[in-house]
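anyone seen this seq b4? input:
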Amino acid sequence: MIAAPVTEPPRPRGGRPRDPSRDGVIRAAILRLLSEVGYGALTMDAVASEAGVGKATIYRRWRTKQELVVDTLAELDQVVAVPPDTGTVAGDVRQLMSSVARAVESPAGSALRSLLPVMRHQPELMAAFENGPLRSWRTAYDEVWARAEARGEVRPELSGSITAEATSALLVQRWLLTGRPVDEAYVDEVFDTVVRPLLDVARP
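predicted toks r here
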């Protein structure tokens, strides 16, 4: 009978251990560079230089540029809207629209806009976007509609409807296509002239 080979436990990787305190600085540097130079011109060396860390610090976290950006995208859901609970659907949607505006005008929003043209050629980037920021965005809206339905303010199954999409469509269009600021004045105008009348129509 042949004895089974003895499997040695994996050896720890060499070098100094990862310092979690630098993660925020590095992610902020990634977002700035994506906004300024885009995905194509982004390099691991540039991230290290922008963050003020050694290249080994970057490669200790990610092996490739794609891994770096995928991981960063997965974390961006933290800056995408958190569902408010003001007690009314109008108050919730208005606050949610402000959260969307702040998100798209943030460094994370600028980074996302720079990545959108290349996502269709990078399935991993698209999956990270869909499972991170986009899912958080949709979840926030779904919670707002569900609470409004439970309070009897809107008709059932409003989530995913044209009315629901319209509450953010103009903000996203302005962000993506015009480059003009998505500020509170614009949010107020969209809410008062487009969204509020739609919410009135959506009553049961």
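Residues 1-16 have pLDDT under 50 and may be disordered. The longest helix spans residues 123-150. kinda curious what u guys think
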